[in-house]
Structures are given as structure tokens and as C-alpha cells.
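Friendly challenge for the regulars: who can give me the C-alpha cells for this chain first? No prize, just bragging rights.
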Amino acid sequence: MNDHPAGRITIGFVNRFDARDVRSWSGTLYFMARALEEHVGDVAYLGPDKSRATRFVVNTTDRINRLSKRLAGKRLVSDMNRILAMRLAHYFEERIRETNCDILFAPVASTEIAHLKTDLPIIYMSDLTWANIVDYYPDFMNLSARERREGERIEAAAIGKAEALIYPSEWAARTAIGHYKADREKVYTIPFGANLEQAPSRADALGHGLSHPLKLLWVGVDWQRKGGPIALECLARLCEIGIDAELTVVGCTPPAEFVHPRLKVIPFLNKAVPEQRSRLLQLFLDAHFVLFPTRAEATAIVLSESSACGLPCVISDTGGVRGAIRDGVNGLLMPMEATGIDYADKIAAIVERPDTYRELVVSSRNEYEQRLNWDAWGRSMREVVTQVLASRRQAGAPLREAHVS
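First reply, four minutes later:
Bragging rights claimed.
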């Protein structure tokens, strides 16, 4: 194995974007890389791919889609396409040859690894599969037949190539096993942590107490998909039944027709700016509930962040949210058909029982400390990497001598 001063393995981080940039995939790639460094081994960043050839493929895909949408009303090609996959394989094969890696970690990188030729073991991580997203997320409900086939083929190739598959929810893991016939022994469910540079102290997180006004927090950039209209209906209902409530929306500006005197809008907060990051954290600490009536969700980092702040979520039971939220522990799961009135009635029932609310606050923080943090994720990944490398040894594959931290 690798010739490291401390005998640590080197993990090749495969993703065409820059995992060192906290803005990549809402910071999740950044925090994953840090957790691997802390608990598993050294990380070699094989991306980002800023090559002219890759930019040409991506730009051409964009032009094709703009034309296809104008003429046929649907996308023709997505990022899950053969030409981009072949180009990325060529790029990463060169980077792997230049870097002394022991194992590859490919988060949300099905296109990057679908055509990749390497003798190194690959761990593929995603929050969903292609079969999960098609006809579920709004942007994937009007795909061309070509795009559906290409996405399916690339996802199947990536899953088949990996020696371990990591998902944050059973929802995604079941599809990998049932639809793509992944070996059950290679599939692991590991929830995501909270993308916080520094989580609040336990004392601060447990500081929530029911008071007036009742503060609801909604965070997202997609008003419709994240259930913004339902959240606003919930606010209106609470006010109608005599509960002094307010709703703060962070991350977008609702359409003009969605107005209420108790609605506050913060269009954007940049986590990369310390002052804005602190303001967002304070909003979590000041709120009483996160309101999240999402219509489609693979997973959401905001759920782990809420638990870090001792803040219960009232959330629709859809997609992969159960990977982070346990009903009655760190949130309240609502049926998809629930209206804003239903959400308000559920919240009102909790408001009438302060002891129950207090228990939710404490158990929410406990969920963060026990499983919804990146250290827990890193320790679980260490076990996966150890098993993958041990399987390689048993199979007689040549490995350099080193150890997993």
C-alpha cells in the first residue's frame, strides 16, 4: 500500500467539482472530505475537472437542451450522458495515474465512474438513484426517452462498478438493491451530518422553550418543491386559531401572491460569509420548529442542522427524509396529503404540551450527537473502507502496506 509517513491510506476523491469549496453541493462534499481525513486516511482531490474538453461537452449539452426545450418542451440530454461520462473517465484515469491512491471515493459521481477503468476499489456514494429521481423530482418528470435510457445505463454501470455503495437513507438503498440488483452485502446506510463549521453547544441547543411568538423556520431555494405554500397556509391557520406565530423564510423570495403580515423573508444567506453563517445559525437557535412540507426530497442537510440546534422538524414523510428524521424523536412526520391546516393542528397540539416539546428538543439534539454528525459518518466510513480493503486482500489483489486510521 501507499508509502505514507504515518502509514495512512490515500483516498482518491472523485468528483468533477471542487470538494474543497464549501459551496459545492451545499458544502456536503467539503464536510465529507474533512471527515475522511479525520477518521480514515489522507484525501487526494482528483477534481475539479476544469479542462477545456469537459467544458465543451457541458456547454454543448446545455445548448442542445435549450434548443430541445424550445422545440419539444423537454430536455434531450442530462449530465447523465455517455459522452460526458467517457470524457470524465478519461480525465480521472489520468489523475489516478498521477496520484498514488489506495481506494477511490466517488460521491454523487455516477457519471464520473460509469466508464472509469481502474484496478482500484471504488466506494460510490449518492443520496438517491436514477430510478428514485425520475418522475419524482419536478425537473425529472418530463424527460425524453433518450435521457431516461442514458441515465439508467450510467447509474447501473456506476453501481455495478462499486465495491461498496453508501446511501443516507433506506429509501435509496432499497432501490439500489431491488431495482439495480446491487449485492445487499455491499450496501450501507449512513446518514449525513450537519454542515456546520462549529455546532452550537448542547446548552445553547437545549435553550428552546415555548414562548410568544411561536417561531417557525422554513429554509430552501425552491418555494414550490419545498412546500412553501403549505408552510404559509400553516402560518395562517395558527394565527386564525389564536396562536401568536410567525414564519421566517430563508433562501428564496416567494411569488408575489404569497403574503402574510406574520411572514418574514430573508432571500439569501451565504454560509461562506461568517456573519451570514452566524445569522443563519441564530435563526435555528431562536426558532421553535422547522417547517418542511417538502414535495420531493432525497435528503436535506437542513434536517441534520436542525437536530444540531435542538430544533424539531415538522416534515412530510417522503423520499429519504426518514434517513435523518425519526418520528416523535427529532421531528414529526406528516403524510404527503397533509394540508397546511393539518400541519398547524399538529403543531398546536404540541404547543399545548410543553413537556412533550421539551422532550423533542432534547431528543433532537441527542440524534445529532449520536448519528447526524460528520464524525459519526467518518467512523462508519472507516469501517466500510476497512472491509473493502480486507476483501481485496482475501481476493489476492495487490495492495500497498498501510492502515486505515
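The chain has two domains: 10-193+373-394, 202-370. The domain at 202-370 is CATH 3.40.50.2000 (Rossmann fold). Your move, everyone else.
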